[in-house]
Amino acid sequence: MKHVVFLEASPFSGPRAVQLVKQTLGYRVSFVTSNLNLYLKGQPIEKSPLRFADELIEVEDSTRFSALRPVISRLHQKFPIDALMTLHDLHVILTAELARSLNLRHLAPEVARRARHKITTRYLLQKAGVPQPQFRVVPSLAEAGQTARELGYPFIVKPADGTGSVNTKLVQTDAEMRRHFRAIKEYQSYLLGIPACGEVLFEEYVEGQLVSVETLTQNGRHHVLGITDRELGGFPNFVELGGSFPAEIDKPNEVMEVAKAALDAIGLDFGPAHTELVLSKTGPKIIEINPRLVGGFVPLMIDRTLNRNIVLDVVRLHLGEDVTFDSKPDGVATLQALYCGRSGVLRSVHQSPHAADSRVFLYHIDKKAGDTVPELQDDYGRLGCIGVWERTQQASKAFAKEIFKETRFVFLTLAMLVCFSQTGALAGCDEELEMMSHPWPKNFPVVQVRVARPTHGLKKIIEFYRDGLGLQVVGSFEKHSGYSGVMLGIPDKSYHLEFTECEHLDGACSPPSRDNLLVFYLSDQKALNDAVARITRLGYKSVPPENPYWGKQGVTIEDPDGWRIVLMNSSGI
Known about the structure:
Elements: E1 3-7, H1 13-25, E2 28-33, H2 36-40, E3 55-58, H3 65-78, E4 83-85, H4 92-101, H5 109-116, H6 118-128, E5 135-138, H7 141-151, E6 155-159, E7 169-171, H8 174-186, E8 200-204, E9 209-218, E10 221-233, E11 239-245, H9 252-266, E12 271-280, E13 283-290, H10 298-306, H11 310-319, E14 332-338, E15 344-350, E16 360-365, E17 372-373, E18 384-390, H12 393-406, E19 408-413, E20 416-421, E21 449-454, H13 458-469, E22 473-480, E23 483-489, E24 495-502, E25 517-521, H14 525-537, H15 549-552, E26 554-558, E27 564-568
Parallel strand pairs: 1-2, 1-4, 2-3, 21-24, 25-27
Antiparallel strand pairs: 5-8, 6-7, 6-8, 9-10, 9-12, 10-11, 11-14, 12-13, 14-18, 15-17, 15-19, 16-18, 19-20, 22-23, 23-24, 26-27
Helix pairs in contact: 4-5, 5-6, 6-9, 7-8, 13-14
């Protein structure tokens, strides 16, 4: 019996691939990971597709060859491995190295390194004359200003080894550029602990439709499965919010030829590739090359249209089995990400009445009640995905948008329960909800609120609000024109407090009166008591409120500068 081994994947694609290989091909299948919970998502193994794995191996470290080589060798000795592969960007280099060590079919490790390192890719495309955006490698912040002037705003700042749109941002000003440059330099590691290289790339912002060319390469020949169009959102970040397959675009053959030329430029001669391009006014330009199968739910979209299974195609390719490359599309499939555009805690999900429609091949909610809803800054901020099929692209996209609008999330954010429809407008809330927020006025479209004040004791202030009260630090800076500071989310950076300390600040930082208050409403008495206990352990005690109203159900405490907070046992107004 043939033996297929997967080393890490995305949380959805890995378990699905294990089930497909076992149930469809009947082969032995093993899955190796350093974090099983990432794939189980709190459910027991008996309810996960990973239950189909013959060997489910959890290791301490899946980021280093020296740590994995003994594990893979023992598995190979016990059950000889016929194919070793990954379904995630971050492990393509390591998987290629391990496969080579076992003399298996594999992508050459040196090619994987070229593709994963965006700076190397850019220079190789430049040498080969493949059209791409202008770019600059920026070693230090001291050189960033001059580079920014050469490129001209706006432009894109990204890490050289990024994945999932993490830390990729469109910047408009020097301040944004410098802030994001520092963020990339300070970023330590990606998913599962893969170290970040910290190298920064500036790229020209090219306007136009984003598409991707999906290919399978065998013996150096690139076979195009088709072209997918991509919908982006979350600006100034770049988040994929949907797409259709096959894309209806002008000059598709030109797009495919540019993608093939890019693969040749980096020397890719085996395996799947997902190549992204922008259709600019002057023609297609390469954005990046990913030497792996397209991720997320896109394989389901392609499968539905081509009536094949491209995950199994990739497995067969690695096993040396016959793969049929030519297939004609039937209709058009569309993916639509589910998202809210703001952060909070998810209260409930209301599905679309069309969720069970025969044209819907995917209706996946990735979050459950009680989960934190992140801001939409990268691919990990999405809440789920819808997949639909129709005869035409227009009908397919329209149907996906209809289901999108019908799906509602109810969540809690900054002392209010918000019932948020996917149109961006407020919808009717359940009777159990006591409060409803209203959007900012159209003539005052606020995107963030900061309450700032000075202090003479920044260290003590951080101790009080972070360690005592329990707020999270969402940003900080040191020695900016003599100022150092910290930002604490309430609960995130959408609304936050800022405390600054200046080397040259004179005068008191005391409050104007005892009635200047920061009030936190907690309906949970135990949580309130716990917060008071934490603050008390730091040496701060409750004080009588100036206004007796705050003493009826609340506790008033002075911070290190004498400013007062109130913890109120109430659900608010």
